[in-house]
Amino acid sequence: MKLFVRLFVVLVAVGLLAMTVAKPTRIVFFGDSITQAGVKPGGYIDKLKSMLPSDQYELIGAGIGGNKIYDLFLRMDEDVIAQKPDVVVIWVGVNDVWHKATSGTGTDPDKFVRFYEAVVKKLQAANIRVVLCTPAAIGEKTDMTNQQDGDLNQYSQFIRTIAKQYNLPLVDLRKAFLDYNLKNNPENKDRGVLTTDRVHLNDAGNLFVAEQMQKVLTATK
Amino acid sequence: MKLFVRLFVVLVAVGLLAMTVAKPTRIVFFGDSITQAGVKPGGYIDKLKSMLPSDQYELIGAGIGGNKIYDLFLRMDEDVIAQKPDVVVIWVGVNDVWHKATSGTGTDPDKFVRFYEAVVKKLQAANIRVVLCTPAAIGEKTDMTNQQDGDLNQYSQFIRTIAKQYNLPLVDLRKAFLDYNLKNNPENKDRGVLTTDRVHLNDAGNLFVAEQMQKVLTATK
Amino acid sequence: MKLFVRLFVVLVAVGLLAMTVAKPTRIVFFGDSITQAGVKPGGYIDKLKSMLPSDQYELIGAGIGGNKIYDLFLRMDEDVIAQKPDVVVIWVGVNDVWHKATSGTGTDPDKFVRFYEAVVKKLQAANIRVVLCTPAAIGEKTDMTNQQDGDLNQYSQFIRTIAKQYNLPLVDLRKAFLDYNLKNNPENKDRGVLTTDRVHLNDAGNLFVAEQMQKVLTATK
Amino acid sequence: MKLFVRLFVVLVAVGLLAMTVAKPTRIVFFGDSITQAGVKPGGYIDKLKSMLPSDQYELIGAGIGGNKIYDLFLRMDEDVIAQKPDVVVIWVGVNDVWHKATSGTGTDPDKFVRFYEAVVKKLQAANIRVVLCTPAAIGEKTDMTNQQDGDLNQYSQFIRTIAKQYNLPLVDLRKAFLDYNLKNNPENKDRGVLTTDRVHLNDAGNLFVAEQMQKVLTATK
User: Fold this and answer.
1) Cα dihedral sign, B159-B161-B162-B168
2) Residue A41 and residue A43: Cα distance in Å, rounded?
3) With the C-alpha atoms ordered D3, D4, D9, D10, is the resulting torsion angle positive or negative?
4) Which CATH superfamily is domain C34-219 in?
5) How far is A109 from chain D (nearest CA, A)?
6) CB B151 to CB D154 under 8 A?
7) Which of B102, B138, B148, B151 to mutate to test the interface with C (most CBs of C within 10 A)?
8) CA B173, CA B164: separation in Å to the nearest integer?
9) How many CB atoms lie within 10 A of CB D64?
10) What kind and span of H or E run contains C64?
11) What is d(CA C129, CA C123) in angstroms, rounded to the nearest whole number?
């Protein structure tokens, strides 16, 4: 009997251990062209993979160029929820603002909030933990003279408010990029510090974003 | 004989009762500012009420100014499906095109189709018969020099294609307005024929739309 | 002696007369709807009239609603130079930025500078002293979340640069408005502090602009 | 005497020779990226060179990508009048319309006409013969569903009106392209018939434009 009890204890312990080391946390990065590029070698998701223990994290990119918040809404079932992630990192907003100028099809402020909340609620209803990010930059000038600075600040503010309302972790890339540029961009350049073209990440940018995300993701786990 | 007479009387009474309490067809008009104005005295829905037997039709307006297809999508549960209509008439598209120029927040062509189909499918899933309309006009000039003519033709074409694919009745107001203007607008005026301001209906416009809808609705019943 | 005294008296009298009838400085305010409203009772030009000695200054409004820098260029001969002013105050820029969003017809940054310099040079060639102003505001929020803040900052920067290059007096209304709001708009409202509607001046705004202009104009005389 | 006669004969011969080799008609093509590409091998200006006698015509390209009518106005002194042309062919308008959607900096309809007339008048004042062209296409679909069709028709109409008012030769490329496509684009494709990308000319397009211009230019000489 004693032996049997001991064996049972051991088996339970092993089982618990197995459960502990079991399935890694599956994280889907849900966004636009910046995230689409993020899975490439040297991209921010690729860098994150080497910064997080691979037995504990599985990182999946779900970025499509040109996506706005309502694109995420339209494709979230197939591209995100179907993957049964534990965590979804939403990083969107640049195109919602930018497309106002480049194609006349940006997103109304109130509709941005409506769809953003709809995406969050639907993920939460599927028992997925949600991490929010503010859009980083359309231009890196530090004196608030990038054309879309005002609008990008406004949409970032919307996301910060949603993060508070829903009590969600936030990677405030807008603030982080501005702070970084205030220190590292004394010539007030519009690109070349963290971006190649005012929007998409250069090598320093990919590393910087990976670091910002790592902090929040490890705290979120 | 007496029994037979009594039975007959009862049957007739039941029949009349059935006819009397027969639920009228409930139609919700789902759209933008044009439909919002349509329920006012003299508006196209108001005119339709006097053109259709009131015991057979119940007409309800669900128009909100500035609405685009994705606004309809966002509010369809509360504003339309909750009303348990038999028929929904969707009339939208002007703002999806116009807002490109007036606020930079028009709707991408492919996203217009995506949301339009999502609205149709959700209504059909609720066993609601769906009637489509093309956007009538942004400017009444007949020589195809209204600024948005090309884009409005394109979005109308999308709606015609959806009507075919889903086998839905179509009130082709775009075509009807153009045909009407070709006959009745020899001076190539941009307003004042069927609209007050290039978009919203004047008295003739409200009557014209009511007539176009009547034809399709009575055939759809 | 008597003759000498008499002669002296006559000379002094003639001198005083000459001073009395000395032509007042003629100032034309050249701009958009804000300046168009500025000549109305209570408008900033109207207020300036009561703040400057009327025998020394003649103030003329030349504002037209919706004007951008190239509108000023197109109408400067007829509306400004023909009036033979001593000083021209150029206050433009809001529509060059705003119309990008509201009609798709804003002004390219480089073209804004080209036309602005062309206007300045043409006025200087006519021996007119030129005073520049930066565009004040499209929205009074103080946290840089007004949609056009970035672009308006950029165009203001262009004007500051031109002022330096051409050594021209500058009424930096953009900076003045922001400073004023930082002190007097603790609720971060988008209107109602110096404007009625985010752009056009309320009573406090008209007074504030008049004061800012007075300082520079009296120094410029 | 004989010597004198001989001398006379020689002088007359030299004179005739001089007349024969008389200065060729110098034509400047003034426009946007389509004209910038027109001077390349196979471009429409290059093709025109081989279609017109080289001793009678000198063809010069003055196209710059992205140019709108007010860009032409700003650079006409240096780039066109300084070349002392006999004829200037103005071909502009695509960007005045297109930039409304792609950067929010298209040209207002009334301002388009103002600057267009200013360019024409300034060329005429320099004794230069002016030939006008309508903008050909932004999209080749034949059913008036190209996004900018309405606006492009409107601006083409402005140019036709100016041509009439100033009695100037017109190469109506808008009409010519549409007619050509109605015959040769049965599949309603948006590019690939006369353009590579809906706007810029393919080989057939360059030839077609050269032919249309040849007709008018030889008649204009």
Assistant:
1) positive
2) 5
3) positive
4) SGNH hydrolase (3.40.50.1110)
5) 19
6) no
7) B102
8) 16
9) 16
10) none
11) 7
Other CB atoms within a 10 A radius of the CB of residue C23 amount to 8
* Residue pLDDT, tens place only, C74-124: 999 999 999 999 999 999 999 999 999 999 999 999 999 999 999 999 999
Q: Interface partners of C (3+ CB pairs, < 8 Å)? A: A, B, D
- Contact criterion met (CB below 8 Å) for D39 and D72: no
- How many Å apart are CA B103 and CA A109, to the nearest integer? 11
Length of chain B: 221
Q: Which residues make Cβ contacts (< 8 Å) with residue C143, sequence separation at least 6?
A: A153, A157, C188
Helices then strands, counting H and E runs in chain C, come out as 9, 5
- CB < 8 Å to A149, chain C: 144, 149-150, 153
Backbone angles phi, psi at B132, to 5 degrees: -105, 150
Phi, psi of D216, deg, nearest 5: -70, -40
What is the interface pTM, i.e. ipTM, of the complex? 0.89
CB C137 within 8 A of CB C198: yes
Those residues with Cβ within 8 angstroms of residue C45's Cβ, 6 or more apart along the chain or in another chain: C29, C35, C38, C39, C59, C61, C210
Residue with token string 């490329």: D173
Amino acid at residue number D11 = L
Longest dimension (CA), chain A: 79
CA angle C44, C48, C54 (to 5 degrees): 145
Q: How far apart are CA D133 and CA D159, in angstroms?
A: 7
Q: The tokens of A169 are what? A: 């972790």
Contact D176, D186 (CB under 8 A): no
Q: What pLDDT is recorded for position B147?
A: 98
> Which residues in chain B are contacts of D151 at CB distance < 8 A?
147-148, 150
Alpha-carbon distance of B119 to B97, in angstroms, equals 18
Per the CB < 8 A criterion, the answer to whether A210 and A44 are in contact is yes
pLDDT tens-digit series, residues D61-105: 999 999 999 999 999 999 999 999 999 999 999 999 999 999 999
Residue type present at position B24: P
Residue A167, number of CB atoms within 10 A of its CB:
6
Domain ranges, ordered by start, for chain A: 34-219
What does pTM read for this prediction?
A: 0.91
